[in-house]
Design a protein that fits this description.
Layout: H1 4-12, H2 21-28, H3 39-48, E1 56-59, H4 65-72, E2 77-81, H5 84-97, E3 113-117, E4 134-140, H6 148-158, E5 159-168, H7 177-182, H8 192-202, E6 208-216, E7 219-220, H9 223-237, H10 246-260, E8 261-263, E9 280-282, E10 286-296
Parallel strand pairs: 1-2, 1-4, 2-3, 4-5
Antiparallel strand pairs: 5-10, 6-10, 7-9, 8-9
Helix pairs in contact: 1-8, 2-5, 3-4, 9-10
């Protein structure tokens, strides 16, 4: 039988290391704190199905779209992220939405959020987190860790009732299989969620999987901006290309962009994350699929 934990560890040997907090701090500086409709967040919370007044823990909360929505619905929320920049933006979002900040992790009341600067790798006990502390623990698009089993164990430990996560399924925000196929670059689908599902199942849980299809609109300042962005896609999605193959792939990418870059009729307007949209966009909308995995927190033993 395949050991999914061992298979995950082998995968990490050939996978790009996760971005550190410096990249996310830099990225956070570009985020606008103005509220925007977030269809992904709405679908995540619909599937999470928190009960009235349940408490929640949001690991990798980012700028707080899920944490704020849960607090607005009357839930006490603890929200953690390893990026101080993201947490600063969440503070701004909380202020704009009228969500109070709790005084401590132990005193979070309904409708409040207690933000924490904490990573997956930290010892959560040092932050006054303990077993069975909240009803529901979530991690939305934030599990980019070498020790996946340990991350799942931490979530299951802190939750009394339910855990919910999303992980990549096929494409990812930074790699689009359709684009790579169009330019003749071989790339394998990224299905990280299968490892999480397998680990949970082997540990005695009964995980359920559903899918969220998140629309993504890419916009660019100019052609060179788009070229730089999609060149990274080749480097991330097809690391096995040889130095001799790379120049040809880049030439095909340039031709593809000339065909698919068009004027953006919404240039200058904020996108769903608050970024100002650039004057160029693609002539189709990219769709990023996410696997939503949920399980009974006490249904097994990791």
């Amino acid at each position: 039988m395949l050991d999914f934990d061992t298979a995950w560890q082998h995968l990490q040997l050939t996978t790009k290391a996760p971005d550190d907090c410096r990249r996310w701090n830099k990225k956070a500086a570009r985020y606008d704190s103005r509220d925007a409709k977030n269809l992904y967040a709405e679908e995540f919370l619909r599937l999470a199905a928190l009960k009235n007044d349940e408490s929640a823990f949001d690991m990798g909360c980012g700028t707080g779209p899920l944490a704020c929505a849960m607090a607005e619905a009357g839930h006490p929320v603890i929200a953690a992220d390893f990026s101080e920049g993201m947490l600063a933006k969440m503070d701004q979002n909380m202020a704009l939405r009228g969500v109070p900040r709790a005084a401590s992790v132990e005193s979070v009341k309904a409708g409040q959020i207690f933000p924490m600067h904490m990573s997956w790798e930290d010892d959560w006990r040092h932050f006054d987190l303990h077993e069975n502390m909240v009803d529901v623990a979530i991690a939305s698009r934030s599990i980019a860790v070498a020790d996946l089993r340990g991350a799942l164990r931490k979530l299951s430990g802190i939750a009394r009732r339910r855990c919910c996560i999303t992980m990549t399924s096929g494409a990812s925000p930074r790699v689009d299989l359709r684009v790579l196929a169009d330019i003749g670059v071989p790339a394998s689908p990224n299905r990280d969620y299968i490892y999480a599902f397998g680990m949970l199942a082997q540990a005695g849980f009964e995980p359920e999987v559903r899918f969220i299809h998140s629309a993504r609109k890419d916009t660019f300042v100019n052609y060179d901006d788009a070229l730089a962005d999609f060149t990274q896609m080749i480097e991330i999605g097809a690391p096995g290309l040889s130095p001799d193959e790379m120049p040809s792939a880049h030439d095909r990418l340039r031709a593809w962009l000339e065909q698919h870059l068009v004027d953006n009729p919404e240039a200058g307007q904020p996108d769903k994350k608050g970024f100002e949209q650039g004057p160029l966009t693609l002539d189709f909308q990219r769709i990023v699929p996410w696997a939503f995995i949920s399980w009974d927190a006490k249904g097994g033993q990791l």
